């Protein structure tokens, strides 16, 4: 059961400025982690201080108006309110990223594991952003917006296979992983963790396709042929129907 922690609950400083110029109905939620090494706190009593330290770094080191993230989630299933709903973030590394996507940061580093309690907290944060923050169903990793290792291999794999989606997902035979909420189109090339998931599934189905996480002309050609074969709208775009058919349509 996730516990939400208010800004006063973790001792946040006041922000110096904030903007409500955000349109998450066009994107959704981008997932982050803190960075390299091991940073997860064993004792939950230490987590609020960690969040305060991140805020100090963002405000005093980077000169930002506030902590950059919308929410921060610790390994103990607590969700700390950063900028909160309906507020533009500074975390996603690009104008379009900060315009259309909230930012949820896991309080782990590359050497830390991803316990179930953390996954629960991330799902709760995303669920809240959909329910009260107008977020669309998309879930991306920071690296989908800018060149970075964030949010690390484990979490980024979970972005791709639907594990972070509060609506379920997870996949398995005959049980399609939840549609990631991101349309694969070309051009330009669509890069997203879930592109590899779809390419891998199409390869399993016997299509000749490279599993490289990049949806370009070759992937689009496979998509078009698959859509024609299954009587789907042949638009070369992997949306919910084409995604689900990859798992559920007869071979
Ligand atoms: Zn990040
Ligand atoms: Zn904690």
UniProtKB/TrEMBL annotation:
Residues spanning the signal sequence: none
Domain Peptidoglycan recognition protein family span(s) in chain numbering: 2-146
InterPro entries the record matches: Amidase/PGRP_sf, Amidase_domain, Peptidoglycan-bd-like, PGBD-like_sf, PGBDSf, PGRP, PGRP_domain_met/bac
Cross-referenced SUPFAM superfamilies: N-acetylmuramoyl-L-alanine amidase-like, PGBD-like
Recorded family membership: Belongs to the N-acetylmuramoyl-L-alanine amidase 2 family.
PANTHER family: PEPTIDOGLYCAN RECOGNITION PROTEIN (PTHR11022), PEPTIDOGLYCAN-RECOGNITION PROTEIN LC-RELATED (PTHR11022:SF41)
Protein name, entry field: Peptidoglycan binding domain-containing protein
